[in-house]
Amino acid sequence: MQNALLKIIPSLLFIACAQLSIPVFAQGLQYHLAKADSLFAQKRYTQSLDLYKSVFNQGQYTPAMFLKMAYIEEGLDHAPQSMHYLNLYYLVTQDERVVTKIKEVASTKKWDGYEFNDFERFMSLYHRYHMLIALSLMAICTVFLFWLLWQRIRQHKASMGLWIVLLIFSALLVAHINFPVQYQTGIIANSNTYLMTGPSAGASVAQIINEGHRVRIVGKSDVWLKVQWHDKEAYIRQDQLLPVVL
User: Fold this and answer.
1) How far apart, in whole angstroms, are the C-alpha atoms of residue 140 and residue 163?
2) Cα 197 from Cα 236, distance rounded (Å)
3) How does pLDDT run across 169-185, given as a tens digit for each residue?
4) Looking at the domain assignment, is residue 204 inside a domain?
5) Which of 106, 138, 200, 209 is the most buried (most CB within 10 A)?
6) Are residues 38 and 60 in the same domain?
7) 144 and 163 both lie in a single domain
């Protein structure tokens, strides 16, 4: 029986290639991405994966790239890594079809943490349009500011109502800029991973869990990430987690 991930990924590649919300690439990174795509087309998968990782490590990505990385990792029998890239793909695209497939794989492997609730969906959309929202709020504030200046110059007075509206939108802009952009999750990378009661190797072991489970990241202390696991908080070393973060 064919693996579920290997079935879904090729069918999503066409849609991913058509995505418009892709970060701008520097010329050198563009070359590496094109080279990686060429190697993938030639079925030289491990070489293309190395180049894709290099591009991603420098903060650049495309939806299609994530799908190809997931495909390669699944072919290498690296299921947690494959799920990691599928989660990143969803973070960028909000493609519900990949959520269905992720849940199917997680259910088959008995991995927890893949609920994809409404708050996570909202935060994914919020992340996607964060810059657009910020620019819109800035534009609105600018319009009201010029309106107030026009009133001051032409009428020698400024409407209190306009001042109040300007203050409200300014407060929204400040709150938006300082609000966490992402609902951060991570996937356990290794078997027999220790969840600790505190951010220290000397803390007590809260639980030992296997690879593949997904946890919510709620904080950080040095090399330790504070995570939520089954409605309880625990700590895990950051090198034991594949963060679903852009």
Assistant:
1) 13
2) 9
3) 988 888 888 776 667 89
4) yes
5) 209
6) yes
7) yes
pLDDT over threshold 80, residue 192: yes
12 and 107 part of one domain = yes
Domain assignment present for residue 169? The answer is yes
Per-residue DSSP letter, 26: P
Residues in CB range of 163: below 8 A, 6 or more apart: 148
User: 208 pairs with which residues across the strands?
Assistant: 194
Query: What residues contact residue 243 under an 8 Å CB cut-off, 6+ apart?
Result: 184, 185, 186, 217, 225
DSSP 72-107: HHHHTT-HHHHHHHHHHHHHHH--HHHHHHHHHHHH
Inside any domain, residue 121:
no
- Confidence category of residue 29, pLDDT binned at 50, 70, 90: confident
Which among 82, 90, 177 has a CA at the least distance from the CA of 128?
90
Q: Which domain holds residue 102?
A: 4-111
Please check whether residues 104 and 20 belong to one and the same domain.
yes
pLDDT in tens, 32-68: 899 999 999 999 999 999 999 999 998 889 999 999 9
What's the structural domain count of the chain?
3
Strands 214-221 and 232-237: unpaired
Beta strands of the chain (E only): which ranges?
A: 185-188, 193-196, 205-209, 214-221, 224-229, 232-237, 241-244
